[in-house]
Write a structure and sequence with these properties.
globular
Length: about 200
């Protein structure tokens, strides 16, 4: 009997581990960060993944962007003691703070789990100009409305400095695109490979 149960157990373990949010994750999050973190992961499941599963992409983009942008901004140096670190969705939500890459990563993985085509989403390095005219390196999540955009109107921007999802043509504060990447649909950098491993392990 045991020889038949083992494959079923392994199959169920793989399925459960593949879930973006699992009960085991919620238990681990509560143990590490407290009830608040557990409730945030419950909210991702209930208010985003369950509620939006049948919605169109526009509704998904706006809802996920709003939810994630409620998390507080903080630098990698203050959080992790390093100058640049790509946190998992789980670290970012558990700690309830992160920088622009962390907002981008969280939005990407939630939207991907909601069925948004990863080919349409790009991690986008840009030059950002604040209200005082200062320039900063920045990252946003871009959503491509068409496969090969020929106009800024064909690219929607999900960023943490502007809480609205707007076409790139309406984001004059993003003065230059450095590059767009997506390790799920193209070459994987060392950071992306590390992020992928950490996401699979649900690193908190």
């Amino acid at each position: 009997m045991m020889k038949f149960l083992l494959p079923i157990f392994l199959f169920l373990s793989v399925i459960l581990n593949a879930q973006l949010i699992s009960q085991n994750l919620e238990i681990r999050a509560e143990k590490k960060y407290g009830p608040f973190a557990k409730n945030r992961f419950l909210s991702i499941q209930k208010d985003l993944l369950d509620k939006l599963k049948d919605a169109n992409d526009t509704v998904k983009l706006n809802a996920v962007n709003t939810w994630v942008n409620n998390i507080k901004y903080d630098s990698d140096m203050d959080i992790y003691g390093v100058g640049d670190y790509w946190a998992t969705l789980y670290e970012f939500v558990g700690k309830d703070r992160g920088d622009c890459e962390d907002y981008t990563i969280a939005k990407y993985y939630i939207l991907k789990d909601l069925g948004v085509d990863p080919h349409k989403m790009k991690f986008t390095y840009v030059v950002y100009k604040d209200r005082r005219g200062r320039l900063f390196a920045h990252m946003v999540l871009s959503y491509l409305k068409v496969p090969h955009p020929k106009s800024k109107n064909d690219i929607l921007i999900l960023g943490n400095n502007n809480k609205r999802v707007l076409p790139a043509s309406q984001r004059p504060d993003l003065i230059k695109v450095i590059k767009m990447i997506n390790g799920d649909t193209g070459p994987k950098s060392k950071k992306w490979k590390k992020l992928e491993i950490n996401m699979k392990n649900k690193k908190l």
